[in-house]
Amino acid sequence: MKSPRIFAGALGALGLLMAGCTAEPDCCEDSETSAPAGTAELAERLAFMAGHVEAGIALYRAGEGPAGGPHLLHPVSESYAEEREGLDAIGFDPAPFEAVSAALEAGKPASEIEPQLAEVEANLAKMRSEAGGDPAQLIPYLMGLIAKEYAIGVTDGAVSDAGEYQDAWGFARVARQLSEEIAAPDGDAVRAELDALLALWPDAAPVPPSDPASVSAVTNQSAKVTAALAKAGA
After folding, report:
1. Per-domain boundaries in the chain
2. In terms of Cα–Cα distance, which of 54, 56, 69 is closest to 142?
3. pLDDT in tens, 158-190
């Protein structure tokens, strides 16, 4: 993935989502989404990074290590140092992330480093617990990212940018995890809409398929998630 730029892109995407806009961007390069800047948005930055890691681990486990590698660089590459600001204070442990990156570079299959992959997932869960953050704010933020990334990743009915297609799936996964913090029965409706959103990716996700769901289907379902969240009063 490219280096993060500005948070405003994600907020703009959320605005388009809530307005029901499904237009695709004219230029993918200029539309790259970004992690929010500043310590006040620590929970958002963590969710942003976690979405990339979710996609990377899933690809690695699916035997698509080279495709997963760029996603897994976010926690360790100097290119994404700004994205990681403040994470040390909530328990960020770079060791398992570095071990996974080294294994990828060495061409090792995921089956050989499952303990390290589990450590990565555990560290993300620990940081999420320490960072706090309100699902009622984080989930709409992620829905905005999904709308923007998917519109870049899928054009003319085909996956045109695999990285962005995969990122959108990763953000949906993180949103689903966050929804577990919303108590039933209100949270049940939110989780049902998120499950319907994730169902728009095939079982082998985030490996790109030949016939991805349409941009409008993903955008509309993302809006349903946000609407269910608002109705729940979360």
Report:
1. 8-19+31-232
2. 54
3. 999 999 999 999 999 999 999 999 999 989 999
Q: List the single range of 72-81, 115-124, 128-137, 208-217 with lowest mean pLDDT.
A: 72-81
* 139-159 confidence digits (pLDDT tens): 999 999 999 999 999 999 999
Amino acid at 40: A
